[in-house]
Amino acid sequence: MRTHDTTTVHPVAVVSGIGSCLPPRVVDNDAVIARGALLTDPGWIRARTGIERRRHVSPGTSTGDLAVGAGRAALASAGGVRPDLVLLATSTPDHPCPATAPEVAHRLGLGTVGAFDVSAVCSGFLYALAVADGLVRGGVCAAPLVIAAETYTAIVDPADRTTAPIFGDGAGAVLLRPGGRDEPGAVLATDLGSDGSGRAAITVPGGGARHPRHRPPPGPDAHFFHMEGRAVYAHAVRRMTRSSEAVLRRAGWGAPSVRAFIGHQANQRILDSVGDRLGIAPAHRYGNIRELGNTAAASVPLVLADPAVHRAVVPGERTLLTAFGGGFTWASTALTWPDVTPLTEEPDTGQPTEHADDGPPADHADTGPPTEEPNTGPSAEEPDAARVSTATSALAPAFVPSSPL
């Protein structure tokens, strides 16, 4: 096993492995319409969101199953390094209680390592990455495994025209290690933010302490995912743009120097707007929304895991990640492009098995209301079709080459 110099006075987290896991079931726009008897057509969905197809889990496949697959792939990508911590970003856990991460760690054969969930909806992966980076810098851990996994088909109403066409299922993961700032894959700066006044714009109203299941629900569809598309669009563009600007300042980078821009894959027009406002050339924007839809917290690591993007971006080049999610929450990360080979695995639907030997862990100023914008979902007026860029192709089971957004 290779060893790395961690004697730097202030080490940073470096990406040492990347993995992904996607359900094999591909669902195109025609199938989504038929499943929910939606009053729309495939071309309308494609023009409004940039989405042509997405992945759905089969009955019996859970978020944890996807997380185990992505985590195992990331560990193989890193050469079999043993993690000493597992963070799982998800808003669709296997159970309200306990957290899903400990079972994922158990199924990965990691024994009694620390493990916990991070819930920041679509910003979850970048929140978890920021936490893991801080723990590495502080010397708390040396090999955190950061996974983002979602099964939004579990909470989206198939008959809801504003959300059913948008979301898909999937998982992505990265393994980190301590290293130097000049290494490929080094996490150099982060920015986190939230605004709880927007909590009702992206929500599942029922099932929590506010509206327990044993009491009458606040509405007939209270246990489904709800989204106020217009408000979300406006906030997403503004918050991701300003968060990106903040993290670029912290990294000491100008936007034109960014060679890989990956935004949360929510809506193609949102991605276009953020990229345009930042001044990042379209040739340096990457994504997979056309093939995978919106996979919530998993969307950013799934783009990171696309081998076609790795063929297009040179290790060490400046990379900007940004996301926006429910809460509201938002986050951005500046890192250099990793020098790793991403791997993928099928979902692991097996039950947990006993781990015989725990073994040692690895060594160690925003003002004013947002302007009104088109709905994130397919419920607002038609956009100019010329504004919809071509999104990248998707991953696994056989990776398909992708192109810039």
From TrEMBL:
Q: Which InterPro entries does the record associate with it?
A: ACP_syn_III_C, ACP_syn_III_N, Thiolase-like
Return the Pfam families for the record: ACP_syn_III, ACP_syn_III_C
Gene Ontology molecular function: any one: beta-ketoacyl-acyl-carrier-protein synthase III activity
Keyword terms of this UniProt record: Acyltransferase, Cytoplasm, Transferase
Superkingdom, natural source: Bacteria
Q: Write out the ranges of the annotated region (Disordered).
A: 340-405
Q: Which residues form the Beta-ketoacyl-[acyl-carrier-protein] synthase III N-terminal domain?
A: 116-196
**What protein name does the entry list?**
Beta-ketoacyl-ACP synthase 3
The species this protein belongs to is Streptomyces cavourensis
